[in-house]
Give the backbone structure.
Amino acid sequence: MEFISWNVNGLRAVITKGFYDFFKSEMPDFLALQETKMQEGQALIESLGYDMYWNSAIKKGYSGTLIFTKHKPLSVVYGMNGAHNDEGRLITLEYEDFYFVTCYTPNSKEGLLRLPYRCEFEDDLREYLVSLKNKKHVIFCGDLNVAHNEIDLKNPRIHHFDPGFSDEERDKFTKLLNAGFIDTYRYLYPETIKYSWWSYRANARANNAGWRIDYFVVDDSFKDNIVDSEILCDVFGSDHCPVKLTTK
């Protein structure tokens, strides 16, 4: 099976920048989007024969997630059983053998002004994912807004206290992995330097001065089912590129 995750930084905008060409070339089993910035029905979205599951923020033009899938789920949960759902950041699809979860983790903002809420969200998310893992496999993806280790961003020294690379955010991701999960890309490629997000400033993408903040994470017992985990750096249209997981 093939899973793709992409922070599109505005779905309506990326549709004008080759989104459907990319979608049709891949046709994965699952395509999870973050930062859709729209409500369902605001624009005509071609489904390409997929089922679509939307979770939009109450505030229009902000945040939001969406999953396209070829496989009808047994159940759908928005947020964490009703919690943390005002900003449309989480969708869970349940299947016979696994849960598929996509997430757009809150950004801590300049000066780490939103770090306390971010930490609360992370703690509740970890507890939620562990509860799912105790029932069946978990495939978790999204823009997690953290570069976990120094290898995951271009200039770690100058960004040490910036949102996405603070000690607190990195520690939360470590705690998630220690709770029985695997960062699939780093599991397969422990020393490979690739990024999934680049600032629009200072020609960052052209200079490959980026961050790896988009992930596929699975529970430990699923690791033998991982075929590949990829970062699709050649796909444009957003300040993020898609990431892809292939499984047995």
